[in-house]
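RETRY 2/3 - previous attempt timed out on the joint model. Re-submitting the same 240-residue input unchanged.
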Amino acid sequence: MVDVEAETVNEEAAVIESGARIYEIGYLITPTVKEDGLEKAVGAIRSEIEKLGGNFIAEGAPSLTKLAYSITAREEGKKIEIDRAHFGWLKFEVQNSAVDIIEKLLKQDANILRSIIFQTVREDTRAKMKAPTLREVRRTDTIKSMPRRAVEAADQVPVSEEDLEKALKDITTE
Amino acid sequence: MSTNILTQNDIRHVDYKDIDLLKQFINPHGRIISRTRTRLTARQQRAVEAAIKRARLMGLLPYIQK
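RETRY 2/3 succeeded.
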């Protein structure tokens, strides 16, 4: 435990000395961009970060996501409403002085609808929690008596009409 | 002892991409639920709020929901 703490302190000291920090960028690429274009767009971001001396830690490939609200964007001088976009992310280590440059580059990119950059930690921040599902409800609409009825019917011995009349007569005479 | 979703599941970092987790902390109108109801610690609540705001900016969560 003490060793782990000492290690983290050493790591932090090294980070402060070097000025390198962990950052994550999230980006939305316009849905009009095709798969080849996506690779190009992500490749451009990656190359810019590499140029600035960044080391990649993790990456989430862009995937088409339905947005929670429509975003207004300008395309060829016209306003358009975008309700889905390719969402991807990148985690990397870079000098803190390079962040402003990366931010500007992302804003200048016409394919990128929206982007975010913030400081984070090296370890995986995704929760390993299973998404809560609805409580299992006992179904009441299923018909369970069907097979039982079928069994009862099978057990019954067919009664002829004569026997039935006899039985009825016996009841009425009594 | 009071417990909350993050402590129960041993979640140390809140990620803005974990939409299903963050949905636990917003009400049907899309507003952030207060600490009295979430039962989070002050630090956890701040982390959740920051993550929700990042998710909203990126269009993963709504600002308002009718």
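Residues 2-18 of chain A form the longest helix (17 residues). Closing ticket.
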